[in-house]
Amino acid sequence: MPTIIVTGGAGYIGSHTTLALCEQGYDVVVLDNLSTGVAHAVLPPARLVECELTNADQVRKAFQGLDVTGVIHFAASIVVPESVENPLKYYDNNLITTSNLLAAAGEFGVKHFLFSSSAAVYGIPTEFPVKEGITKDPINPYGRTKLINEWMIEDMALALTMESSPYTHPGMTFANLRYFNVAGCDIQGRLGQNSPQATHLIKVACQAAVGTRDKLMVFGDDYDTHDGSGVRDYIHVSDLADVHVAGLQYLERGGESGVFNCGYGHGYSVLDVANKLKEVSGVDFNVEIGPRRAGDPGALVADVSRMNESFGWKPKHDDLAVILKSALDWEKKLSGK
Questions:
Q1: What is the C-alpha to C-alpha distance for residues 116 and 129, in angstroms, rounded to an integer?
Q2: What pLDDT is stored for residue 335 in this prediction?
Q3: CATH superfamily to which 2-182+235-262 belongs
Q4: CA distance 82 to 107
Q5: Has 142 been annotated as catalytic?
Q6: Is the separation of the CB atoms in 86 and 124 below 8 Å?
Q7: What gap in Å lies between CA 285 and CA 150, rounded to an integer?
Q8: N or C: which end of the chain has fewer CB within 10 A?
């Protein structure tokens, strides 16, 4: 039976995507070293194989005996401040894993490759909403590894079309998916964001609402936005999971390789999020205003027309209250409240 391999499928976005694939009838094998993911997030019938993706032999072994038609690659180190403090960890982990996966894809005839990229490849954009074709100028090692990975995937796909390629391969199409801000948890409460050290605004705000943090810090209230706080394009994680399924099906239908922004195409400010969460939770948690953080743009909103038109995708959870309630319910579950 044809199989989709999902790397990092025990993590936040990967586990939701694995669930969405299984619900669409795909056979899914998750490769994860469980350094940040958790085994119980891989829900049956998906199968978990513990694998160190920086080890080429382990990657090859994981592919052997399977008819792998697609790879969806999430596994990566993703904490931006840590990438600045420890850049070689990010260059080693994020690039070697992709190189090993692409080598296996070439050897085992994988037809489709979807990559978890990021709006961090744009750096501080000067055009809004952000289109895929604008200048890419990442400002931290995390964003740079994402852009280099995109180039690696594009280069490998091109190489596989050449008669001189060392691989006997029918050709591979790809979709590099640039996420903006991912939030929320499975509506049915089956999955969520498990890392207590997560830096995502909505998880941090929910921790403040349930009392596992003493406050929510707002970094800057003097941006040129409607309330002075930064505006971001938040997409519900289950909608983003469905984007991956739609992207895979687009490639399976013969769609052209490309780069696609992933978001809703509109944004909410940090204070919008804080105020709405107080309303949803009924808790007047502490919000503290601090100075801007270096490198934070005032607004970051995606132009998602390419994704919508190519994939034929429509969101199911484009509602801030829905996003917040799903995240809050999960945080209550984690805290035992």
A1: 20
A2: 87
A3: NAD(P)-binding Rossmann-like Domain (3.40.50.720)
A4: 34
A5: yes
A6: no
A7: 40
A8: N
